[in-house]
Specification:
This protein has helices spanning 9-30, 32-62, 69-78, 82-96, 101-135, 143-170, 176-192, 194-209, 251-255, 282-297, 330-351; strands at 217-220, 225-232, 236-241, 246-250, 259-261, 268-276, 302-312, 317-325, 360-365, 371-377. By secondary structure, it is an alpha+beta fold. The strands form three sheets. It has a five-stranded antiparallel beta sheet with strand order 4-3-2-1-5. Strands 6-8-7 form a three-stranded antiparallel beta sheet.
């Protein structure tokens, strides 16, 4: 009767373990030099990446409260994860040393995962940093500041969704159906919330294009509505009109119209017309523009443009005066305008130049047609014939 030797599980496991140890020892002895070089290169690369990350953190600390491109890139490199640094070093060791195929495939897979997630993190910080840079620090606690949080969430979801799809594709998973499903779902959500998203993207247009800011005086519509911007929200913008009432306008409707931003004026153009009586001599008429120029230039904020007699009016010789006020404030403009008017009144009184006012002159005539006496009157012109004895 034959007997069959039964291998115990413990004995089989011990043989496999010893075989693995022998293989590992043979691999280490045969690739010791390459392994040491790979480990050295991996450590150097890891230290370099950690140093770059530390520099980014220090730049952020020094530039606290500021937000420019140097700080944005510092925030990007400061988000470098330790898992990514380790996997970069491991990938370098695998490339230098002749590692077993099983270990190589594991390291390659983990490196793809780490690199994909790290790229998504870097892209998120770069995009959000650019948005915050465009928004500016003055909207940190406003509704547009909360909009940045919504943008961060949307960017994070989109980038990490792409990263997960890329990781699954590297694992050999067919992601065509998943991508198609996400596309259909996005279209459905977009159609359902079309109005909300249109106003949201209009708010983003205000962030990036900056046609106006909080505190600006703007005009829009026909007939125009003028008011000061009080609040810029995700869906609407609120203004305080010059009449005192609050005007609420949807962001989409507001950007569809022509806007005039009065706050962005560097200087204000003022056009004034005045008339002189017809009895003014030609010499004084020629002297008036020079006198007006001197009056305008005596004001610190005023810049003279031109002054000319441009027409014969019904009761005056009309002049047009154009000057600029080097100030964005309407109060400064009105103060300069008043000073020029007062200066003209004083100087014209000294020269004997009279301002005209709406009058008509009635002439009486004798029977022979000769004029008797002109006098100013407000009634229409008429002809009066004198009879004999009157």
């Amino acid at each position: 009767m034959s007997t069959q030797k039964v291998i115990e599980p413990d004995e089989n496991l011990s043989e496999q373990t010893s075989r693995l140890v022998e293989d590992a020892g043979a691999w280490l002895s045969g690739n010791s030099v390459n392994l040491l070089l790979g480990l050295a290169a991996g450590i150097v690369v890891a230290l370099i990446l950690i140093g770059i990350r530390s520099i980014g953190c220090k730049l952020i600390e020094r530039g606290r409260g500021e937000l420019h491109w140097r700080i944005i890139f510092a925030r990007v490199v400061a988000k470098t994860k330790l898992f990514f640094i380790v996997m970069v070093s491991a990938k370098l060791v695998v490339e230098v040393a002749d590692t077993p195929p099983a270990l190589t495939s594991i390291v390659n897979f983990l490196f793809v995962v780490a690199a994909t997630l790290q790229a998504a993190i870097w892209a998120r910080e770069l995009i959000v940093g650019y948005v915050e840079h465009r928004v500016g620090p003055e909207t940190e606690h406003s509704t547009l500041g909360s909009a940045v949080g919504i943008i961060r969430l949307l960017v994070t979801v989109a980038l990490f969704a792409i990263a997960i799809i890329l990781i699954l594709d590297n694992l050999g998973v067919n992601v065509t159906g998943l991508v198609a499903g996400l596309g259909i779902g996005g279209i459905a959500i977009g159609l359902a919330a079309q109005g909300i998203f249109s106003d949201l993207f209009a708010a983003l247009s205000i962030i990036f294009d900056k046609p106006f800011r909080k505190g600006d005086m703007i005009s829009f519509g026909n007939p125009p509505t003028t008011g000061m911007v009080q609040h810029i929200g995700l869906k609407s913008t609120r203004l305080r009109s010059i009449g005192g009432e609050e005007v609420v306008m949807a962001n989409t409707k507001l950007l569809e119209q022509q806007l005039q931003n009065w706050t962005l004026l560097r200087k204000r153009r003022v056009v004034m017309t005045f008339g002189l009586v017809y009895q003014t001599s030609p010499e004084l008429l020629a002297q008036v523009p020079l006198e007006v120029k001197e009056i305008v230039e005596s004001q610190p904020l005023a810049e003279f443009d031109r002054c000319h007699a441009f027409q014969f009016g019904p009761s005056s010789i009309d002049f047009e005066l154009v000057f600029h006020v080097d100030s964005m404030e309407i109060d400064d403009t009105m103060a300069v305008r008043q000073a020029i008017v007062v200066g003209m009144l004083r100087r014209f009184a000294e020269l004997g130049v009279e301002f005209a006012y709406p009058t008509q002159t009635t002439f009486t005539a004798a029977p022979d047609g000769t004029l008797v006496m002109p006098y100013a009157a407000v009634q229409p012109v008429k002809r009066v014939d004198l009879k004999d004895g009157e």
